[in-house]
Amino acid sequence: MANPSAVCNGHLHHHHQKQNNLLKSGLYKKNGITKGMKKNGISNGTPYKKKIVEHFEQAPMYVAVLTFLGFGVGTIFGYLRDFMRAWGLEKRNVAAEREQQKDFVPLYQDFENFYTRNLYMRIRDNWNRPICSVPGPQFDLMERVTDDYNWTFRFTGRIIKNVINMGSYNYLGFAETDVNALKTVTIELQKYGTGVCSTRQEMGTLDKHVELEKLVAKFLGVEDAMVFGMGFATNSMNIPALVGKGCLILSDELNHTSLVLGARLSGATIRIFKHNNMQNLEKLLRDAIIYGQPRSRRAWRKIIILVEGIYSMEGSIVRLPEIVSLKKKYKAYLYLDEAHSIGAVGATGRGVVEYFGMSPDDVDVLMGTFTKSFGAAGGYIAGKKDLVDFLRTHSHSAVYATSMCPPVAEQIIRAMKCLMGLDGTTQGLQRVRQLGKNTRYFRRRLHEMGFIIYGNDDSPVVPLLLYMPGKIGAFARRMLEKNIGVVVVGFPATPITESRARFCVSAAHTREMLDTVLNALDELGDFLHLKYSRYSKSSHPELYEETRLELED
Questions:
Q1: Beta carbons of 217 and 224 less than 8 angstroms apart
Q2: Angle between helices 16-24 and 278-291 (to 10 degrees)
Q3: What does DSSP assign to residue 99?
Q4: Which of 336, 504, 350, 376 is nearest to 435 (CA)?
Q5: For the chain, which end, N or C, has fewer CB atoms within 10 Å of the first or last residue's CB respectively?
Q6: Which residue did the predictor score with more confidence, 16 or 189?
Q7: How far is CA 128 from CA 124, 150, 276, 393, 489, in A?
Q8: What is the pLDDT averaged over residues 480-507?
Q9: Amino acid 109: pLDDT
Q10: pLDDT value at position 531?
């Protein structure tokens, strides 16, 4: 494996002889993926043969046609309403230029706002609903109504109690208010207060941060780790410290915005590969080695692959064994974002690295967040000590961002010790197993009902496809009437024909809660005609089953 410290100092060169040898070398064997499994952290070199089951069933043609038709009708009426607003026939509620500034460069781009004011506003009541309790398996919701078609809201003063929470990332149920569970957090709050008021490089490194970083490194099985106060900034502020001009980033097309922003801020060249498509990734790697940088044809200083463990909108799991094999074959680096997978998959909750039985040393940069499975805030970067020491000096978050507050650090320590069994109980392991049971049960029942759902059978992120724009609002409102809180997502956050509801399964969900949700979905699926599944084989697995990666140009 390439020395991870080279990620820091940037001295990575590819010689022509090496390039030829790499292109001639084989990656796959007939009996499976040539990837060493590991048990208790020890690689044994045996092929990885576990079948990866993911679902990406295509909707019937009439659904796609009706979806485009729905957007078309909405667009026509949007232009009609814009015309009426322009002539004063309808009240203009959006920001507009003053008459005195008509000759100025426009501050508000009218066309860019078209979708927001004409489509999003019609269903805006399904987002940003204020919660007034802990986001556990159930929560309390502040009721609000609108008198002007979602342009403004007013609160009624009524609290909607015990809404089943199917939207929060509370995978292991550590978002809780149990007094005994939060006892140590309360002690740290009284000792340290709520804030640090300084950066890590100045006076913001506390003994709690040191304790947490040592625990994270031990949990992941790596040399060192560094924690940050914000999960989004862990990606966006650290990627620019690792790569820059003259480097190449190969990014999965479905990567999170934080990865995309970090890649753009770095100044490196960015190339996108199709989601989990190893053929496409290898072609980009091979071309990068052969042709080098544009115009100059010099070798890239570094090539780094950016992927996620679990993709939060698709519910799919990264094909880590193949990617590790490719990155070793072409001497690239691998940056793995485990925001949704750490704690959620793997026999003991150690993420996709453990899920595939691999060694943490196979990944050059391990990133994750504490905002989901740990019920806290912030993120981490882990790996070789040289890498972490470099980031302590060069990371924008370390230099400019305020440190993680001590009570949050203690919450993460509490949850992580529970997962590791250091609290003297097996509660952490039970939570991981319960999450797996709940996930498989929920997904299986949805399949049986005839819904189209995306992703891996072991992923607690469960997207249920709605497709048509008119059904987004109807679905969320009807579910809330049944005291079930859901997250619905549409264009432009998803492809225009793939609007969806995204469920996040939790270990804290009881079987009764899940059955309540499933019964409501079964009834609503019939009412809104959402059961589109024909149990047809997805086109994605056919591509993934390929064992030969060489492509014809």
A1: yes
A2: 160
A3: G
A4: 504
A5: C
A6: 189
A7: 8, 12, 32, 37, 13
A8: 93
A9: 66
A10: 95
Poorest-confidence range of 74-88, 281-295, 435-449?
74-88
Q: Are strands 54-55 and 42-43 parallel, antiparallel or unpaired?
A: unpaired
Burial class (CB in 10 A: 0-12, 13-18, 19+), 28: middle
Tokens of 405: 């507050």
| 471 contact partners, CB below 8 Å, separation of at least 6 | 499, 528, 530
Q: What mean pLDDT do residues 225-251 have?
A: 97
Tell me what pLDDT residue 102 has: 74
- Contact between residue 219 and residue 343 where contact means Cβ atoms under 8 Å apart: no
> DSSP secondary structure string, 121-150?
GGGGGGSSPPB-S--SSEEEEEEEE-SSTT
Tell me the average pLDDT across 266-277.
Answer: 97
Identify the burial level of 383 via C-beta atoms within 10 angstroms of its C-beta, where 0-12 means exposed, 13-18 middle and 19 or more buried.
Answer: buried
Closest CA to 139 of 169, 157, 153, 159: 159
Provide the β-strand partners of residue 489.
500
Lowest-confidence segment of 8-22, 236-250, 297-311 by average pLDDT: 8-22
- Per the structure block, which two tokens stand in for 387? 């890498």
For residue range 29-49, list pLDDT tens digits in order. Answer: 333 333 333 333 333 333 355
Query: Number of helices and strands (H, E) in the chain?
Result: 19, 19
Domains defined for the chain, CATH in brackets: 131-172+427-528 (3.90.1150.10), 179-420 (3.40.640.10)
Q: Which residues contact 420 (CB under 8 A, 6 or more apart)?
A: 218, 219, 348, 428
Q: What CA–CA distance (Å, rounded) separates 371 from 169?
A: 8
**Cα dist from 157 to 133, 142, 144, 318, 474, whole Å:** 15, 7, 8, 45, 24
Of 14-28, 74-88, 126-140, 253-267, the poorest mean pLDDT is in 14-28
Q: Can you tell me the distance from the alpha carbon of 4 to that of 16, in angstroms, rounded to the nearest whole number?
A: 22
Choice between 295 and 281, residue whose per-residue pLDDT is larger: 281
Residues in the chain, total: 553
pTM: 0.86
DSSP state of 337: E
Predicted confidence at residue 49, as pLDDT, reads: 59
Evaluate the CA torsion angle 162, 441, 486, 251 in order and state its sign: positive
Report the C-alpha gap between 166 and 191 in whole angstroms.
35
Indicate the range of 174-188, 226-240, 306-320 predicted with least confidence.
Answer: 174-188
Other C-beta atoms within 10 Å of 118: how many? Answer: 18
Q: Rounded distance, CA 111 to CA 14, Å?
A: 47
| Token pair for 450 | 């005839």
Calpha distance 135→122 (Å, rounded): 26
